[in-house]
Amino acid sequence: MTAPGRAGARAAVATDAAPPAIGPYSQAVAHGDVLYCSGALPLELDGSLRAGTAAEQTTRCLQNLAALCEAAGAPLAGALRLTVYTTVLDEFADINTAYARFFGQAPPARVTIGVAALPKGALVEIDAIVALG
């Protein structure tokens, strides 16, 4: 892992506990007391797509984000805002059920966007902005 940025410094954050980036981008970037996580696909550590429902893929996306947050020294529960991208808006209720398992009584702000397609044929992708410290 590269150390989180402090006092205005920008630092890439990476961990082997989450799948590697599939393009020319960082898994996350820390700046000051904020962690900006790239979109997490429902990938296994070997880079293969987790097959299954949108709810199952949502769970894997959030597990990957949680691992990245942990590497940066913050819990996913400290998220300020997440964006959920999905190709199956008709499974919105199931996505919500899986999502709710990761957050308590004060979940982060969120946007959900229906999209035509996602990388690797995923049904869900989620990015996050997380408070550090």
Provide keyphrases for this structure.
60s Ribosomal Protein L30, Chain: A; 6 strands; 133 residues; alpha+beta; 2 helices; 20% helix; globular
CATH homologous superfamily classification: RutC-like
Summed up, the domain count is 1
Radius of gyration: 14 Å
Number of helices: 2
Helical amount: 10-25%
What is the terminal-to-terminal distance? 17 Å
Anisotropy-based shape = globular
Would you report the number of β strands?
Answer: 6
User: Average pLDDT, to the nearest integer?
Assistant: 94
- The CATH architecture assignment turns out to be 2-Layer Sandwich
How much of the polypeptide forms β-strand, as a percent range? 25-35%
Which CATH first-tier class would you pick?
Alpha Beta
| SS content category | alpha+beta
Walk me through the structure.
With 133 residues, this protein is of the alpha+beta class. It has a single domain, classed as 60s Ribosomal Protein L30, Chain: A (2-Layer Sandwich). The protein is 20% helix and 28% strand. It contains 2 helices and 6 strands; from the N terminus they run βββαβαββ. The protein has helices at 54-71, 92-100; strands at residues 10-13, 28-31, 34-40, 79-86, 109-114, 124-131. It has a 6-stranded mixed β-sheet with strand order 1-2-3-6-4-5, with helices on one face. Helix 1 (54-71) runs parallel beside helix 2 (92-100).
